[in-house]
User: Fold these one by one.
Assistant:
Number 1:
Amino acid sequence: MKKIILILLAVAASLAGRAMEQVDTITVSTSRIASPARCVVAVPDSYMDQADTTHYPVVYLLHGFGDDHRYYASKTPLDELATQYGVIIVCPDGRKSWYWDSPLQSDLHMESYITCDLVPTVDRLYRTIARPSSRAINGLSMGGHGALWLAMRHPDLWGNAASMSGGVDITRPKFHKKWAMSKSLGAYESHPTRWKQHSVKYLAETLPADTLRQVNMMVMCGTEDFFYTVNCDLDAVMNTRKIPHTYVTGPGNHSWAYWKDALVAIMDFFDRNLAR
């Protein structure tokens, strides 16, 4: 409890003395990942009205490998997106973490940071609706894996989740030497079980079906994407287990040209499902 209070005081201090920006960057003090832990937060136009007391749903957007918390703000006007859908948008810096807790890197416990530090901090600093049905999480590539990984494992935090071109099965041989996963998990040849257990597809196969059914899920992937096959495999697993979800495929590769339209489709999906 003392640690949480100190974290909140540190964030509050960083915001003190200046007016809130509609698209702002906050820094969260944490021992779970290397500092500084920065995060972009965007609020709707109405939030900036001093007379407004509305509490808003929250959408977390996770970036892909090699990017950071500034990625989405560099690609799309987050203030307009937040205003259009009436939500608070949160974009954390996921480093090269794949959004799990690395068993090898003690300063890269990203899952614990997001679930134990970031979400409570956002709920205390902003007028959020702090319940699972009013939270959503989405991501692209590594972040698509992360969004489903976090929501499947923490339905007590997120009742809505989506993935754009997510790396949802990392065990394929062609992925073993890529994206710093061996640095986080160890070499695949030495730790095949660990790699399997850190895959979204494994969660879909093994978590209780009733747990997975707590989350409204949407999965999107372009047919020319190198992650297309593993997304089809995930869809098949969830169909076999009768896990409700929406799976959308169509022309597109692993690029913003595909994700910009996918983001709109997923925000529409969240808009239909988020509790207000």
Number 2:
Amino acid sequence: MLLTAGIASAKYFLRHISRKNTVTQTRRNISQHYDLSNDFFSIFLDPSMTYSCAVFKVEDESLEVAQQRKVNLLIKKAKVERNHHVLEIGSGWGSLAMEVVKQTGCKYTGITLSEEQLKYAQMKVKEAGLEDRITFLLCDYRQIPSRCKYDRIISCEMIEGVGHEFMDDFFGCCESLLAPDGLFVLQFISIPEERYEEYRRSSDFIKEYIFPGGCLPSLARITSAMSTASRLCIEQVENIGYHYYPTLIRWRDNFMANKDAILALGFDDKFIRVWEYYFIYCAAGFKSRTLGTYQIVFSRPGNDKLAYADNPYASLPAA
């Protein structure tokens, strides 16, 4: 029995390392999850098709309102202005791009590796009449020419698909693409540092059945890649992870309330059980504070344009 378990464990580990996120393999990994069906994702996501942690003001708030608050928070932290050119790495179904442009009028480029997401986002941009401001590309972050410079870079829950081995490459690319006085805003799901080494070297339910090639970074892995591969420094850090529990519960409730619609798309009962477990499994991780979700603002040393901007202490009483 132990031998059988060991063989099974080795099989999953070998499968996991075979999914290492090279340029070619990353596209396959992303496609296995995000190209399932746009209709499928629309069943459990909010109308904006935002697939990341929301920010709730009160517990019974609607998912749509909470997602809009998260988007507004990212826009505020990025300090986007009309004359800026923004790059979004992992642009999803385009909701963040359209909201940033509607609020600021900036120029925006979003990249994704999902053909289904690309088609949907381009359709929504055309419907909104924003084709002159927003461009979406099917492109790996490593394939963006270094001559391109962006005033702001935003990446919301994409870095989990980069992989441990390519984390330095990711930050090196951001360093080369960011304008001298630019800001980089990163949102990501994190795993505790004490578990990171064992976790990254093994497979688990999420890596096997939901996100092939995925690897949640620890906060320390993010900062080590930042310091090794770039001149970036941290301006602000916030952990919004406790908001992911209600986000996942909303997704799970929407999902389970529409099982018939999911079956009608061609998925089977096993698929439904796997995805329900995915939602609950992840929700438990955030409920127990085992998992976190960080928003980090990066800049470079000497960026004096940030001096006293949005001083959070301005309204506090004196000691």
Number 3:
Amino acid sequence: MQSFKKNIGQFCDSLKVEKDVSLHTLRAYTGDLEEFLMFVQKKPASITNIDIRDFLASLHHRKLKKSSISRKLATIRSFFKYLHREGTVKKNPAKLVSSPRVQKALPRFLTVDEAFALMESPKGDTFQAARDKAILELLYSSGLRVSELSTLDINDFDIKDYLVRVKGKGK
């Protein structure tokens, strides 16, 4: 199992270098793959599509959402694609496994009254109130994700041209 953990580490290193994925994504991928490793208890080269399907079935029996199962399968697919490319496995067993159908939920949005109430929530003349109001204004007016907003730095703001440089998903 040590070699499997080593493969996971190398895979995550390649994701950092080649795709510049976020720390959050790396943690999710590592967790998904370690969970899979604990389930199959095999070396990557001996894993079959049946093992992957059994793992997905176990997730379904644990009542995980289809979207979570689908994400875990996407992680496993990426991992085996990497292992195949590196020559660690001869065949990619994940290629033969289909994803569960996931219904896309529409995002929930604020009503006009909720938006006004939110924008008015920072009270006072303090630095924190001004900061919170600026954060809320930026979130509301730009449609940024909270994760994108939280990575902003002072250098990402161009005050002269009224621009904000956002590094989001896909960088």
Number 4:
Amino acid sequence: MTSSSSMSGPEFFASLGTVQMIASILVAVVASVIVASEFSGGTIKLLLARPYSRSQILASKFLVVLLYAVITSIVLLVSAFLFSLFLSGGDYLLPVSLDLGALNAVQAALLLLGSNFILMTVYASIAFLFSSVVRSQALAVGVSLGVLFSGSVLTALLPIAIAKYDWMKWILFNLLNLNSAVSGNPIAGGLAVWQIIAGLFVYIIIFLGLSFFIFKKRDVALS
């Protein structure tokens, strides 16, 4: 990874300061505790006593997580731009790298921001699932962050596995390399960006579907 000290301002902005993982961690933590905290704090019964269905309650909480992800993305974009102004100069409207073709720094930053928002939604849906399953906030956060950080370890092993079993290119940990793909670096299995995004949305639907199913069936009296 290129250090920020050797980057020009536009290059730093185009990469969003290479700190997208921090934004993903923050969103995953919020998604992990937003439901689990209701159970561990004993407020879930009061919440369910309101004239709303469990699906409506869970949907509203996930919308809160998405809103937090939007705010976090905006803060990330603005922070990266402001910090880039302190680095060596350059034109933000000229192509920023060969890997990104004709994209300038602003276009590259927005593209990366969009792909990172999709990844944050994936991490949020995973964390949301664990938050709906377990009663402990700490356990929900720990498991969710474990999934998030284990991805980088498994990514190193994926090319070997995919070379032997082509279907493994569709497993979640390979698709989580979306940011790398939109930055011009092909991922294992040679999937196009649109294929990666489509695959991630399938996983999001699965995780959210499981979350709603489990939450609707969960016995609050035993929680």
